[in-house]
């Protein structure tokens, strides 16, 4: 339980109707969760305006309303008018849970691709080094050994601060967090105190939400603009937008690169399905991770450890012991020698990187099959690009369903087909059913051929018309290998 006036500290208040000297024990922006002693935040969403639900939450026993305009409320309800309810939510959630981010080594990782891999590698590495760690990621949230279901890449400020407070109470010293562009734009991480932030890359994604690529870049940059001078900002300067992220930051500016000059640099010495051999800042490292994109991920991890002051030799030793992250270039070989790779690649750049990696490893004597789809109710402009990349870098392509959500999967595939030029028609199939698409690839594959199943990675479901059906790409391929004696 907290006193309202205490958790309002730092909020830009326009008007107060009532008193701030009341006790509150629950925060929410969801009208369905309101109960007595609640603070309700009226937030203007994409589809609904929280202000419309104020009469309903007052009837449910709400104690305090945080709104952006004066509205009529019962005398028993306190109304606080603020300039921005999203900002107020972030600040008040931090105050309510006693500012847990200030008590942790909190590291945020943002960018289009690589966030999940980097944060998960950091969690696993620091756990190996003997630290108690937390993880907030697309795949799972973790407090030490305990897994907590993840519903968003970056949770809302209430869930986020509750998680961080629990980490503090459990003795966690380091927390590694994916910071999505949605989270930055919606101010979910506005009031958190980061020890450091890292930028991976920025490519074509989320334009259904951000509308323009410039807006997408500017939103990412905001994360670094807000870092304090006590933090570090680590950026990938091989990405053309890497330097932009650091333009206005007060944090210590650091860089990493494979192709350019940077504070942390690496060179790929060997790249095989068995792993990578890298030279990182003059030190040789073998790792089980595969591909240039993982060389960037490992280099970012290394840079973060050095900025946090950890022993280089211990870090490199731990890095060599880490395995691939679930759904990120996970590969298995059948008894007949067919290699299947499951990867979360769901953006043009990510798909291109994975196929480039396969291209660099393959002997050219085998056939590369790519099974790929695009999600429904998401950025439609990337659909033809995904199909074009798959065709340009594969011998056979099967376009199929990803998570169609409310869209007709046939329509999604038709939009992808717009990226397939006449020369590639003969090597492209359209099979709407994802199971059948994978089965077809397995049936066609021969010894030493390579099958890439892209788009869903770690996901254990397929979202069709609002229903999540059990579906796991990796388990599917394993079962098909057994059933078809591959």
Extract low-pLDDT stretches.
Answer: none
Mean pLDDT: 94
Biggest sheet strand order reads 11-10-9-12-8-13-14-15-16-17-18
Shape: globular
Profile the largest sheet. 11 strands, mixed
Total strand count, please? 26
Number of helices: 15
**What helical percentage do the residues reach?**
25-40%
Taking all Cα atoms into account, the compactness measure Rg is 24 Å
Question: Based on helices, strands and strand pairing, what is the structural class?
Answer: alpha/beta
Binned strand content:
15-25%
Distance from first to last alpha carbon:
60 Å
Summarize the structure.
By secondary structure, the protein is α/β, with parallel strands linked by helices. The chain is about 30% helix and about 25% strand.
Describe the protein's topology.
Blueprint: E1 2-3, H1 4-7, E2 13-17, E3 23-24, E4 26-28, E5 38-41, H2 54-59, E6 64-67, E7 78-82, H3 85-96, E8 105-110, H4 115-128, E9 133-136, E10 140-143, E11 146-149, H5 157-169, E12 174-178, H6 181-185, E13 196-199, H7 207-210, H8 213-225, E14 232-236, E15 252-257, E16 264-272, E17 275-280, E18 283-287, H9 292-307, H10 312-321, E19 330-333, E20 339-343, H11 348-361, E21 368-372, H12 383-393, E22 396-399, H13 409-417, E23 428-430, H14 434-444, E24 450-454, E25 461-464, E26 467-470, H15 473-483
Helix pairs in contact: 3-5, 4-9, 9-10, 11-12, 12-13, 14-15
